[in-house]
Amino acid sequence: MEHGVRAHADGRSLRRADRAPSGGDIHVAQDGPPDAPAGVLLHGLGGSTTWWEPVLPALRDLNVVRVDLLGHGTSAKPAGGYGIAEQARRVGAVLDELGIRRATVVGHSTGGAVATSLAEQRRGLVAAIALIDTGPRLDAFLGDSFAGRLLTTPVVGELLWRLRTDGTISDALSTAFTREGRIPDRMIADVRGMTYRSLTATDEASTAYLEERPVPDRLVGLDLPTLVVFGSRDRRWRPSSAQDYRRVPRARIEILDGVGRTPMFEDPDTTGALLRDFALAPAPR
């Protein structure tokens, strides 16, 4: 299979781009006016471009680029290539192919690590960065659901993955929400569609990135406008750890009351409005 980027814009047919780093095809969705300010949306572990659909109406005045990271959604799922820096290079290649030279980059959870790495690599490309429930450091991690812990346990996890059901996946995703309600089918389908290797390697890569250096420490020297959005009832990352980002110059922290770790689903109106206003804010002089 050739390596490249597969993109669609507002429902038009997929097209190829041959300048992406190796690893396999990367799926991209593009919405909104192509000449508008660009906003890039990067999902977290187990997610896809569809996780951002609830906030798209609020972002209609932006040129929105959503990317399925390697191993996720309909992007390729090879045996390797899941390092955070590698994922960030692929996102940069997508934007180069689309002709986007400056963008506000938004990342949810692990996607926030990828967004940060992209800013580290391509300071001229990233105009501003928004992080949604991205854990700042490893010791802020509260833990996963019982099913989630089992799935990442060597040997046992791989066996359970082969026997996975929608119910098992739903249990594993339970800590992603705080408000009562059924786990969206699209979330379950996205996780089910991953390979066990893509799931565990992405999880390991995220851990390694935080072990190397906390996210706020990485942002301090970048001097970027920064928006941090955190659910006050995040069940995986200690909500109070959002205050770690206060040491980042030009950082703004928004805590969403009564929301868990998926604000795009739990409070899409507020989340979308925050992202829109941040991305459309006048560039600092």
Query: Strands across the major sheet, in which order?
Result: 2-1-3-5-4-6-7-8-9
Order of secondary-structure elements: EEEEEHEHEHHHHHHEEHH
Specify the overall morphology. globular
Radius of gyration: 17 Å
Major β-sheet profile: 9 strands, mixed
Distance between the termini: 46 Å
User: How large is the share of residues in beta strands?
Assistant: 15-25%
The low-confidence parts are: 8-21
Output the CATH homologous superfamily: Alpha/Beta hydrolase fold, catalytic domain
Describe this structure in words.
- There is one protein chain.
- The chain has helices at residues 84-98, 110-121, 146-151, 156-162, 166-172, 185-192, 196-212, 215-220, 263-266, 268-280; strands at residues 5-9, 15-17, 26-31, 38-42, 63-67, 103-108, 126-132, 226-231, 251-256.
- The protein is an alpha/beta fold.
- The chain has one domain: Rossmann fold (3-Layer(aba) Sandwich).
- The protein has a 9-stranded mixed β-sheet with strand order 2-1-3-5-4-6-7-8-9, with helices on both faces.
- Strand 1 (5-9) and strand 2 (15-17) form a beta hairpin.
- Helix 1 packs across helix 2.
- The radius of gyration is 17 Å and the shape is globular.
- Residues 8-21 have low confidence and may be disordered.
Q: Which labels suit this protein?
A:
Rossmann fold; 285 residues
